[in-house]
């Protein structure tokens, strides 16, 4: 106890404790209280009754003097069954017929003229056999799936019109052939009047060889130019050779691209 008092005195000994301080008590502002507070409490308690959901904390023991008697709970069970029968979810029209009684005699003496043996034989003969399913198994677990829609069978190449030329291509070819024939008729008519003549293959090949030989000569002169073009005459000479090679290449391409060439006289 002495040690505790010394520690307390040491903690209270401070410069700030030399001057006594007055304690200021701040008054707490009153909180807002709704005028409907009492109504809310009453409405919250409405509709609640004791022991409705969880029951009693300790189940009361029945009095031995008031023991359960015969048919005492029949009224409660009848009320509960009556409530179940009158529920809207019960459909009485779907009930099955009652089970026949043991005293109900079965129908005897019913006869028919139908020959079941002959009927069954005809059904077996006339029945179309069912085609087996075309399935494929591709894993070790035995899972199967139909092979026809899987794309593994050559279904499209077995069609009747497989590999045929489409109709629009046939019509386009026919139009092109018709236009070519009309052009040939026009050219032959023009030839009769002596306005143009067709260049034969020998003449065309001779002109083509001459153009290629001339292009090789100009190209050889172009390759013999000096690497450094430092004067105006050299630059003009180089540009003239390039222009000649472009013209020759254009004429050669024209003769090689067109097989039929007409010359106006």
Automatic annotation (TrEMBL):
One Gene Ontology cellular component: acrosomal vesicle
Biased composition (Basic and acidic residues): 71-94
Taxonomic superkingdom: Eukaryota
Record domain Enkurin: where: 171-263
KW NADP (keyword) present: no
Region (Disordered): 35-109
Entry protein name: Enkurin domain-containing protein
Taxonomic classification: Eukaryota, Metazoa, Spiralia, Gnathifera, Rotifera
């Amino acid at each position: 106890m002495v040690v505790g008092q010394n520690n307390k005195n040491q903690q209270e000994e401070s410069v700030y404790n030399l001057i006594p301080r007055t304690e200021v008590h701040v008054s707490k502002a009153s909180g807002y209280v709704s005028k409907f507070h009492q109504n809310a409490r009453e409405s919250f308690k409405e509709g609640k009754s004791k022991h409705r959901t969880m029951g009693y904390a300790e189940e009361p023991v029945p009095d031995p003097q008031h023991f359960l008697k015969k048919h005492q709970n029949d009224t409660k069970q009848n009320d509960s069954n009556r409530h179940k029968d009158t529920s809207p979810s019960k459909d009485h029209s779907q009930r099955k017929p009652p089970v026949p009684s043991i005293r109900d005699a079965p129908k005897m003496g019913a006869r028919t003229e139908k020959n079941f043996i002959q009927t069954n034989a005809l059904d077996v003969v006339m029945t179309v056999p069912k085609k087996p399913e075309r399935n494929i198994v591709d894993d070790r677990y035995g899972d199967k799936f139909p092979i026809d829609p899987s794309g593994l069978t050559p279904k499209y190449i077995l069609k009747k019109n497989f590999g045929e030329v489409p109709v629009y291509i046939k019509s386009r070819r026919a139009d092109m052939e018709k236009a070519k024939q009309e052009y040939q008729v026009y050219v032959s008519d023009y030839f009769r009047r002596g306005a143009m003549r067709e260049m034969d293959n020998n003449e065309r090949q001779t002109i083509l060889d001459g153009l290629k030989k001339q292009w090789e000569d100009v190209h050889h002169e172009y390759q013999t130019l000096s690497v450094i073009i430092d004067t105006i005459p050299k630059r003009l000479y180089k540009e003239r050779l390039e222009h000649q090679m472009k013209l020759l290449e254009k004429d050669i391409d024209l003769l090689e691209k067109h097989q039929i060439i007409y010359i106006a006289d």
